[in-house]
């Protein structure tokens, strides 16, 4: 565990001048033998142990990795609060290209760092990490979820993540068009990886028209082979400007909704699986001003965290699916609160989540 005092100046600046703020603990991890460099950020434990995935990504700088960990951890606090879980928010990022540096030794070293927190942080899969990786991490850390069924886990959480996003879309359609059906609606999905390809299945089963794009050719080819009716466009820029697009679903990395994309977006609803879709504060107002209904990302993509949280208590898929189905009602409640308060849905969701965290902290005397 690297002492913060030894961190580079740009990392220290990110830690102490981040606009995310309010984090309880940030741990910088380094294991020279395996090459591990990681950041574990705990935003809040007011509702219980921090729960959030491990992202494995090739960041340009360590400061960028710290900033992402802080941002993602804060988002997990709000996600877990809105999902009704007794967990706070945390996130970890491992720095590097998982295709080239991921090894058993590195994952075991990472597991030891998570274990050293004594249960304050419970980890799981995220971008760049998979069920098999969590099985390795769990050999050193009992506070690991997202493991395989063979190792006492629940397996792939992307199934319920996609199901929750689908419920969020249905709620958005109900609010905007008075009918939750997505039949004959055109849905554009940017990113058809772990979550996106399951979302395609839900939409086609209901009779929606689906258009996809992904930077990975193999991901697109997998969908095209299984579902010839799915249309493919070259990139996200083309996708978001399509005529007749009803719903846009960002399902890759964050920051998809920025000044440029919102200005040209043709869809009337944005509802996707990606975390931190709003590139900066104010984008939620820009969406509202253009009459675009935004389903807050951390609300609709909570199916996965509902699953991994349940794993800690003896996993039951049908119980988790029933909880994830309630994302429909939660999303509608957020839209109603937004209308009542005269604010964008993202702000309404934040208010509800902050109220729950505040009440929990007060009950614990914090």
Automatic annotation (TrEMBL):
Enzyme class, first EC level, given as a word: oxidoreductase
Reaction(s) catalysed (UniProt annotation): L-valine + NAD(+) + H2O = 3-methyl-2-oxobutanoate + NH4(+) + NADH + H(+)
Cell compartments where the protein resides: Cytoplasm
Residue stretches in coiled coil: none
Keywords: Branched-chain amino acid catabolism, NAD, Oxidoreductase
EC assignment: 1.4.1.23
Keyword set includes Oxidoreductase: yes
Domain Glutamate/phenylalanine/leucine/valine/L-tryptophan dehydrogenase C-terminal as annotated: residue spans: 155-365
Pathway noted in the entry: Amino-acid degradation; L-valine degradation
Family: Belongs to the Glu/Leu/Phe/Val dehydrogenases family.
Assembly and interaction partners: Homodimer.
Protein's recorded name: Valine dehydrogenase
Species assigned in the record: Streptomyces asoensis
Highest classification ranks of the organism: Bacteria, Bacillati, Actinomycetota, Actinomycetes, Kitasatosporales
Gene expressing this chain: vdh
């Amino acid at each position: 565990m690297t002492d913060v005092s030894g961190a580079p100046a740009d990392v220290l600046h990110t830690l102490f001048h981040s606009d995310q703020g309010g984090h309880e603990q940030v741990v910088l991890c380094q294991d020279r033998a395996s090459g591990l460099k990681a950041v574990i950020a705990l935003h809040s434990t007011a509702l219980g142990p921090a729960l959030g995935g491990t992202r494995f990504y090739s960041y340009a700088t360590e400061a960028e990795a710290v900033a992402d960990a802080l941002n993602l951890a804060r988002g997990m606090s709000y996600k877990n609060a809105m999902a009704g879980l007794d967990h706070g928010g945390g996130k970890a990022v491992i720095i590097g290209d998982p295709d080239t540096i991921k090894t058993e030794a590195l994952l075991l070293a990472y597991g030891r760092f998570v274990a050293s927190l004594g249960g304050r942080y419970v980890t799981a899969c995220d971008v760049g990490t998979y069920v098999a990786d969590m099985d390795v991490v769990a050999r050193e850390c009992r506070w690991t979820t997202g493991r395989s069924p063979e190792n006492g886990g629940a397996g792939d959480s992307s199934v319920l993540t996609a199901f929750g996003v689908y419920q969020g879309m249905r709620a958005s359609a109900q609010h905007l068009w008075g009918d939750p059906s997505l039949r004959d609606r055109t849905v554009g999905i940017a990113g058809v990886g772990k979550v996106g390809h399951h979302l395609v299945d839900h939409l086609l089963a209901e009779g929606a028209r689906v258009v996809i794009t992904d930077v990975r050719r193999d991901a697109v080819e997998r969908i095209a082979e299984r579902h010839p009716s799915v249309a493919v466009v070259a990139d996200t820029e083309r996708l978001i400007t399509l005529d007749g697009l009803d719903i846009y679903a960002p399902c890759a990395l964050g920051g998809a909704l920025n000044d440029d994309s919102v200005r040209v977006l043709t869809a009337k609803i944005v509802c996707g699986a990606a975390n931190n879709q709003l590139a900066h504060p104010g984008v939620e107002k820009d969406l509202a001003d253009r009459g675009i209904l935004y389903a807050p990302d951390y609300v609709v993509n909570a199916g996965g965290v509902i699953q991994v949280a349940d794993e800690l208590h003896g996993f039951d898929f049908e119980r988790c699916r029933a909880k994830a189905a309630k994302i429909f009602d939660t999303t509608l409640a957020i839209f109603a609160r937004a209308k009542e308060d005269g604010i964008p849905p993202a702000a309404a969701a934040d208010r509800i989540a902050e109220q729950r965290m505040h009440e929990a902290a007060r009950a614990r005397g914090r």
